[in-house]
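Researcher: We're teaching a course module on how sequence relates to structure. For the next exercise, students receive a sequence and then see the predicted structure as tokens, so they can try to spot secondary structure elements on their own. Here is the exercise chain.
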Amino acid sequence: MMVMTTAEEIDEIKQRVEEIRVMARDPLEAHILEDQLMRDVLELIAVGAPDAAKLAMEALRSGEIEFARHCV
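Model: And here is the predicted structure for the students to work with:
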């Protein structure tokens, strides 16, 4: 994982949330992308990201995207 400034991290998270929005027509792929995003953000927070709350808030916006979130 690259070391970035918080602004760069937030921009990347926003881009990834948008990618999830685009992929919502394929719920399985969107769910995989969302899981990966959450894991990556948790890793940033775990290593001491200075603005952990901002990172988490941006990542949690993916929850506003409607697609099936259940496992078979």
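Model: If you want an answer key for the exercise: The longest helix spans residues 27-46. The radius of gyration is 12 Å.
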